[in-house]
Specification:
Blueprint: H1 6-17, H2 27-33, H3 40-53, H4 60-71, H5 77-86
Helix pairs in contact: 3-4, 3-5, 4-5
InterPro entries: DUF3349
Pfam family, one: DUF3349
Protein name: DUF3349 domain-containing protein
């Protein structure tokens, strides 16, 4: 059986937590929680891409561009910081 998609995981989580449906006052807080975050594997893939390309050291724009290439989504500042923390020191 294949791994559920990101959207399938969210829908399952919502159905489990709100079996009677989401109350209107909870929509905004839920949307804030559901913002996409890079997985650990995606962080590693971005780091590997940057190191392999010889582009290190990099700035936030370089990291953001690499994240977008891998995820087809705009990166958050948190995701950029997570990638930066995993880049080899001194490169």
């Amino acid at each position: 059986m294949s791994k559920p998609s990101f959207v399938d995981s969210i829908v399952g989580w919502l159905r489990e937590g709100y079996p009677q449906g989401v109350p209107p006052q909870d929509y905004v807080p839920l949307l804030a929680l559901l913002r996409r975050r890079l997985t650990d594997d995606e962080v590693e893939a971005v780091v590997a891409m940057l190191v392999a390309s010889g582009e290190v050291p990099v700035d936030s724009a370089d990291i953001g561009t690499s994240i977008t290439k891998i995820t087809d989504a705009l990166p958050s500042e948190d995701d950029i910081d997570r990638v930066r923390e995993h880049l080899p020191a001194g490169l």
